[in-house]
TrEMBL record:
A Pfam family recorded for this sequence: META
Signal sequence annotation: 1-23
Annotated DUF306 domain residues: 38-148, 155-267
Matching InterPro entries: DUF306_Meta_HslJ, HslJ-like_sf, Hsp_HslJ-like
Keyword Signal: yes
Top-level taxon of the source organism: Bacteria
Sorted UniProt keywords: Signal
Organism: Thiorhodococcus mannitoliphagus
Keyword Signal applies: yes
Protein name listed in UniProt: META domain-containing protein
Amino acid sequence: MRRTMTTLAISIFAITLAAAATAAEPDAPAPASTFTVQLEGLRWTLTDYRSADGLSQVWPKSRPPRFSFQDGSFSGSTGCNRITGSYRLDGSILTIGKGLAATQMGCPAPLMAQEKAVIQALRRVATVHRKGATLELHDSADEVLLRFSLPQRTPLTGHTWKLESYDNGSAALTTPIPGSEITLKLDGEDRLSGHDGCNAYMSGYSLSGDALAFGPIATTRMACRGGPERAEQAGRYAAALTQAASYQLQGQELTILDANGKPMARFTSEATSSAQAATP
């Protein structure tokens, strides 16, 4: 009987110690939540890239360097050629696949240097960070390699701008040939389009504050029905646009300025032009 009581007491004592030890142990930490950076389903515009000279701004005359990430595949532009590849995203850890493919178009030297630096930066990406409308890709040392932004809202979009006057190389603004109907549209995603009086044209643009730059102008190749004068006008209009460095907007009037602040082209909103034409 005594042996039974002793065994029972020891058992109770052991259970008591185990319960006390369990109560004294801290709760196990909850698994850390994984937060995945939201970069998919958006069109990111490259603004800065790292080269041997440090972090540099994208050349303003480049084509719109936009990137899209979706379901493990990305595509974009270096400002010259299109580039595609694969990626894996785990929280903020971003791994770019080794197999990058690009078109092989030749571009001006500054663009080719930019393209080389962008591709080299992509191969070194380790993490991704987003703050509002800004996206950054960092290397393993947490140094910024590539910086992107979402297209900014601007009063320049949502309009068809009709050319009222432009610099045709004579150091003064002149009106277009009657009936030319030269137009300009900016779509809010760094793409522009319009009609130069002969052909449809398109390009890219970069916008930061009141700084505005257009990329190389590409046009359709239809014969100009207006004759050689209109064809010459179209070429001079394109030359004026490519000198853009900033803009002024007063009401419904848009003025494109060169690097010295000289007006290169002046437009009015087509809706305003129509209203003025209808005024008796």
